[in-house]
């Protein structure tokens, strides 16, 4: 492949490539609400076709569709490219510009950034990957590997129907030698991270209700004066939640929740020990607008807690009147949304079982438990050709990089790293963005201060493909 020619096209087409990303962001695709999902699936399919896919399917599921593209480059090796086209809701968030406007904003030291829901998670990287394929095609070249592109519309819901797709298409997907998820992995200072896996997740709701408890209002919210003689399901929920941790909110007291938890392997322990010499906690503080970590931990102890401990997080609590002003009611139900992050060797089934047993043991058997999504952790070997291909791209770009045993967040990579496919899977790419799931989500376009812009991001994807072809072909 004539890499300089492709690179030249990427550079001169930068404005068009920015508009591709803005077009993707402007199409809402909020999976929790079903908003714009069909339109977004059609748009992703058209982008795949324009990028050179010989066939594209919008595959129906019991939920939102999966878009499946095939690009036969006549190469020896094949990569499965995982993407997601859905986003989180924007309700209740205060943005500096409309979240689906895809505003271009100047921000030092990076020049232009694009601000919008999905900018970094992950319509920006998706658009950049498609733009890279456009440039390859315009140069009269073919990608150095064949591609199977899987774009789902339910990642933010826990990928409930992706397992069905993987099982149904397993014979075709097995043709892939590895899995790559295009991202933008640089932090605000330009350092880039390679994650060798992900934590798993259980997302659930707990609900206390008068109807289930047999106390308090049974059917509807009532006047709050009745609290003098009628029980409160809202307080019932508060006490159930309080039983799950110490007063610090961090010491988990759900017996058996950490069953199966394993100490880090020797390889992971070595990675963390070295990581502690390069990790900059101020980046995390700045990015998340926090001042202190739990127990004021620093260094290796902080990294070990982040990577190898499970979590019990409250995402939201609601019940009764939540509007402006006042309305004095005694709610007939109250609900908490929670998530639990899983580390090796925890299982979703074991975690849910422990939670239910805790509620029973502490007298809260009436609390309803509803599971929304649940899947396990994943791991990939550092020595795999795809992991090394990503590292080769970072080294070639001269970018400081860190190797993490796994990410603290969750992705459905277990579907690819485990049976029936059992492939190595990593995410990667230069570029930076932040504030996923938060107001003013953004991705850098021009670059500066050690952070690659869109051109460097696209070139890094091409480098990963070429490096993988070289390594997997040996």
Spell out the key features of this protein:
single chain; 474 residues; alpha/beta; Aminopeptidase; 6-stranded mixed sheet; 20 strands; 22% strand; globular
Question: Would you give an account of this structure?
Answer:
With 474 residues, the chain is α/β, with parallel strands linked by helices. It has three domains: 3-196 and 380-472, Zn peptidases (Aminopeptidase); 199-261 and 310-375, 2-Layer Sandwich (Alpha-Beta Plaits); 264-299, no CATH class. It has 15 helices and 20 strands. The protein has helices spanning 3-12, 14-26, 37-50, 119-138, 162-168, 170-173, 210-213, 233-242, 266-275, 281-288, 299-308, 348-361, 385-397, 414-417, 454-472; strands spanning 55-59, 66-71, 78-84, 103-107, 111-115, 146-152, 178-182, 192-195, 197-209, 222-223, 313-318, 329-330, 333-342, 368-375, 378-379, 401-404, 407-410, 425-428, 433-434, 442-444. The strands form five sheets. It has a six-stranded mixed β-sheet with strand order 1-2-6-3-7-18. Strands 9, 11, 13, 14, 15 and 17 form a six-stranded mixed β-sheet that branches. A four-stranded antiparallel β-sheet has the order 4-5-20-19. Strand 4 (103-107) and strand 5 (111-115) form a beta hairpin. Helix 1 packs across helix 4 (119-138), helix 2 crosses helix 4 (119-138) and helix 13 packs across helix 15. It is globular and about 80 Å long.
């Amino acid at each position: 492949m004539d890499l300089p020619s492709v690179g030249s096209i990427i550079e001169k087409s930068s404005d068009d490539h920015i508009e591709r990303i803005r077009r993707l962001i402007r199409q809402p695709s909020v999976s929790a609400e079903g908003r714009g999902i069909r339109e977004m699936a059609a748009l992703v399919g058209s982008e795949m076709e324009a990028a050179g896919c010989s066939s594209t399917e919008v595959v129906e599921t019991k939920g939102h569709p999966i878009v499946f593209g095939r690009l036969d480059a006549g190469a020896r090796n094949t990569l499965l490219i995982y993407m997601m086209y859905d986003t989180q809701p924007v309700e209740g968030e205060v943005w500096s510009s409309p979240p689906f406007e895809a505003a271009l904003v100047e921000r030092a030291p990076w020049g232009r950034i694009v601000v919008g829901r999905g900018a970094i998670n992950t319509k920006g990287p998706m658009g950049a990957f498609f733009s890279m394929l456009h440039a390859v095609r315009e140069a009269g070249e073919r990608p150095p590997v064949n591609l199977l592109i899987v774009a789902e519309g339910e990642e933010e819901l826990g990928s409930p129907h992706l397992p069905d797709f993987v099982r149904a298409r397993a014979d075709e997907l097995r043709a892939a030698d590895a899995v790559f998820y295009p991202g933008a992995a640089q932090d605000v200072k330009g350092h880039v991270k390679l994650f060798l896996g992900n934590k798993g997740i259980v997302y659930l709701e707990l609900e206390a209700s008068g109807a289930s408890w047999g106390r308090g209002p049974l059917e509807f919210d009532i006047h709050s004066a009745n609290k003098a003689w009628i029980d409160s399901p809202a307080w019932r929920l508060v006490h159930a939640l309080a039983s799950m941790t110490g007063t610090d909110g961090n010491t988990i007291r759900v017996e058996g929740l950490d069953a199966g938890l394993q100490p880090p392997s020797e390889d992971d322990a070595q990675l963390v020990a070295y990581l502690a010499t390069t990790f900059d906690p101020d980046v995390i503080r700045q990015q998340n607008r926090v001042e202190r970590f739990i127990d004021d931990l620093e260094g290796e102890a902080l990294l070990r807690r982040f990577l190898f401990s499970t979590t019990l997080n409250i995402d939201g609590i609601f019940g009764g009147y939540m509007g402006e002003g006042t309305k004095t009611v005694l709610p007939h139900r109250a609900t908490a949304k929670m998530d639990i992050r899983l580390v090796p060797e925890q299982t979703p089934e074991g975690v849910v079982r422990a939670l239910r047993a805790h509620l029973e043991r502490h007298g809260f058997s009436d609390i309803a438990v509803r599971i929304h999504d649940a899947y396990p952790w994943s791991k990939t070997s550092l020595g795999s050709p795809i992991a090394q291909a990503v590292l080769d791209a970072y080294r070639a770009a001269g970018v400081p990089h860190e190797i993490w045993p796994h990410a603290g967040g969750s992705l459905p990579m277990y579907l690819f790293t485990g049976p029936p496919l059992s492939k190595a899977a990593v995410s990667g790419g230069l570029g930076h963005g932040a504030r996923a799931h938060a107001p003013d989500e953004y991705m850098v376009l021009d670059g500066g201060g050690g952070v690659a812009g869109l051109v460097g991001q696209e070139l890094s994807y091409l480098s990963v493909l070429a490096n993988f072809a070289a390594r997997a072909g040996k």
